[in-house]
Amino acid sequence: MDLEEISSFEAVKPYWDELNHTYKRDELAVDWAIHQQIWAQFYQPKGYSLKILAGFEKNRCVGIFPFKYMTAPDQPSSQWAFGEEALISREYFCLPDKLHQFEPYLPPHPANDLSCFYVPAQPQGFSRYPGGIIDLKDSVESYLASLNKKKRHALTHNARENADVAVQIDRRIRDEEIRELTEKYLRYWQIKSALSETSKDVDSYEKIMIDFYLLRRAEEMGKLIAIYFYVEGQLAAVNFAIRRESDRVDDYLCLRDTDEKYAHRGLGNYAIWVNMNHCRQLGIRYYDLSDFPAEYKRKFINTEMFYYGFAKPEAAAGAAEDAGVADTAEVAQSNIYQKVG
Length: 341
Known about the structure:
The protein is α+β, with helices and mostly antiparallel strands and 341 residues long. Helices cover 33% and strands 24% of the residues.
C-alpha cells in the first residue's frame, strides 16, 4: 500500500467522493465539506496542524484518515491524534479488508468511535467499545417487549406524562424559532461545565456550534431529521438526528428548556421516544445514541452492540475489560456493528 500525506480537505475531495461512491454507496451523511468548515472555524485559528493520511493500492484510494496536532508548552506529550471530538470520525473511510494495514501508521491515541467502519476483516490491533445502540424492531410493541420491566415502565410513563405535548416534524433547522432555546440551553451547560472537575478540549459553546455546522450540512444533503416539541404553544425542546445509510440514524443534539416547570416532564427522554417512533416509520432499524450515552438515555438501549476502535494492545485489553466485553464474539460481517455473542 502506498501512503500519501495531504494537507487540506479540498485536495482530498476527489478521493473522498470516490470512497463515498464505492464503499458508502453514495449514502454519506456529511461529507468532506463539513470537515473543512469545522477545521477552518475552530481548529486552524487555534494553531492546530492538519495531516490527512490517504492509502492507495493500484492507484485506487482505499482509506482516508484526518489527524490534528497541537503543540502546547504545558503538554510535552502532545502528538498527532484522531480528531474524533470534532472532525467526525464517523466519516473516516477505509475498506474493511484494508483497515488493518493502516494500524501501524496511526497514532497511539485511541479513537473509540469508529462506527463508520464495518467489522474489520482482521480485528487484531483494535479495541472494542460498548455502543449505545437501539434496535427499533418492527413495532412499538416489539421494541417494548425487548426491554426489562423497569425500563418499559419508565418509557411508557414518560410518554403518558407528555401526552399533551404538540409535535412537529421537519427536515430543517428553524433558526429564529430555536434562538432563545439554544441560548438558554447553552447557559445551562456552561454553568454545568464550569462546576465539573473534568476538563474538556472543546468548551460548551464551541461544542454546540460545531454540532450546528454538522447539522446544517446534513440539512443541505437531505439527511436531517428535526422534531419540535411545544407545551401550551411554547417551544420546549427540539431534537436533531442525522440519517446514516439506509437503516440507521444518529441522535445528535437535543435542545431542552431547562426551566424548572418542565423538569417533571423528562423532555430529553420524550424527544428520543418520539424520534424513535418516527424513524421506525421511515424504515430505520438502528438508532444510535453515541458510544458513551448520558445516563438518562441508557433506559432505551436494548442491544449489546459495540464499535471497533484503534488502540494499543494494552489499552485495548483494558477497554474491553472495563466494558465487560467477552473474549469471543459473534461476527456479523454485513453489519456496521458487532454484537457480543
